[in-house]
Amino acid sequence: MEKYAVIVAGGKGTRMGTDLPKQYLPIKGLPVLMRSIQKFHLAEPLCKLILVIPSVDFEFWKGLCAKYDFAVPHQVVAGGTSRFQSVSNGLAVIEGTEGVVAIHDGVRPFVAVEVIQESFLVAKKDGSAIAVVPLKDSLRKLTDSGESFFQERQQFRLVQTPQTFQVSKIKKAFEVEEIPQFTDDATVYEFQGWQVSLIDGNLENIKITTPDDLSYAEYLLSKVG
Ligand SMILES: Nc1ccn([C@@H]2O[C@H](COP(=O)(O)OP(=O)(O)OP(=O)(O)O)[C@@H](O)[C@H]2O)c(=O)n1
Ligand SMILES: C[C@](O)(CO)[C@H](O)COP(=O)(O)O
After folding, report:
1. In this model, does residue 57 exceed pLDDT 90?
2. Which of 138, 140, 164, 183 is the most buried (most CB within 10 A)?
3. Does this complex have an ipTM over 0.95?
């Protein structure tokens, strides 16, 4: 079975607020994005890696790969104006409809190798595999009138990536017009009326989003490497 990974890193990192977009920032000496790509290569050495970055960054990325002697083979594709468009551009370079594709945020370098491997196995069987984790804190729902109500946290999950799919199904799902409810790939898949399969993610698999995440990332690397 052919395996692909579309690693999306076409964003601007507005919430991080750094001049250099967060995907290129080094943590413990290696850019976030290279760490994410390495994880897929380690988990699935034969997986075809498709990296989505803004087209204006192509030369910069080439230079970064030379600087860090980064040799993991990958195809570079131009990003779009939203995560949905970037994923769509990545899927478009997969020829045909055979195989399974993992879609992963380039800014989640702490994904566990085991989660990636499990996602491919489950997606092959079920059509999809979405990494999720349970909540550790209590949960409250806010109303417009300023009240709040207890919610059963057991009924909720936090959604991560990878989100892995049979190529035929996810390509079909992405043929739709983008709507604001498409916050991830699972919502695009579900829009077809298909149920997603959930798998256990790993708690450390944070999305590096704000400056405090960078300090936490450095801490995690000092612990686990
Ligand atoms: N047009 C876009 C927007 C986002 N992404 C990617 O989607 C992932 C999750 O998005 P997010 O954390 O929101 O990244 P940014 O959009 O860069 O951050 P911000 O919203 O703070 O600007 C990131 O790997 C990001 O690079 C993308 O490929 N193309
Ligand atoms: C895809 C995602 O990382 C799953 O948790 C998340 O939905 C991305 O959200 P963002 O608003 O683009 O950061």
Report:
1. yes
2. 164
3. yes
